[in-house]
Amino acid sequence: MMILILGLLVFLGVHSSRVFAEGLRTRFIAQRGEMAWKGVYAVLSIAGFALLVWGYGLARQQPVVLWTPPVAMRHIAALLTLVSFILLAATYVPANAIKARLRHPMVLGVKVWALAHLLANGTLADVVLFGSFLVWAVLSYRAARQRDRASGTQPLPSKAIPTAVTVVVGVAGWLAFAMWLHLALIGVRPFG
User: Fold this and answer.
1) Is pLDDT at 93 greater than 80 in this prediction?
2) Cα distance between residue 141 and residue 86, in whole Å
């Protein structure tokens, strides 16, 4: 469990720089440049992600069951992860109404993803992993919205076709992940 926690601290720690250390981030970029910041950010993110994947895998070998979720939670989780994939797609498809309205769809997607997995899983490792991501996403979204208000961010333009493309890409990604990739990468079949 300690490796999982260390991975979460590194990964979410570096991803929290705009939440808890905006001034430190700004000074680092001013002194060393944006590319140096991106390099440090990338290296720490990859290291943290590798640690949390390894730690979660180790923790799953000897699970500490806190509760057994009802089967219905799997269905709710499936629906929530579909929403999460559409939000993730909204991050990258330009001029879609979802991003225009929500401003930070990736962080909201992480929030929905984490909540879905908390509802469907009841081990200590799941609570630590997905609970950490949920808390991070709540704080990160709040901080991002505060930055938007402080900077007077203007509304984003949006169009119907990019919005439809966003939904189609999100659904296709969700289907691919739910039907094949979740089992191949995580070792768990969401359906069945």
Assistant:
1) yes
2) 17
Instruction: Determine the Cα–Cα distance for residues 37 and 111; give it in Å rounded to an integer.
Output: 26
Take residue 126 and report the two structure tokens written for it.
Answer: 């799941």
Q: Which two tokens stand for residue 100?
A: 């225009």
Q: Which residues of 121-147 are buried (b: 16+ CB within 10 A; e: fewer)?
A: bbbebbbbbbebbbebbeebbebbeee
Q: What is the pLDDT of residues 116-143, one digit of tens each?
A: 999 999 999 999 999 999 999 999 999 9
Q: How far apart are CA 139 and CA 42, in angstroms?
A: 21
Q: Which of 97, 78, 74, 102 has the alpha carbon at shortest distance from 167? A: 97
Q: How far apart (Å, rounded) are the C-alpha atoms in residues 190 and 182?
A: 7
50-62 pLDDT tens trace: 999 999 999 999 9
Are 104 and 141 in contact by the 8 Å Cβ rule? The answer is yes
Check if the beta carbon of residue 14 is closer than 8 Å to that of residue 41.
yes
d(C-alpha 100, C-alpha 97), whole Å: 5
Average pLDDT over residues 34-63: 96
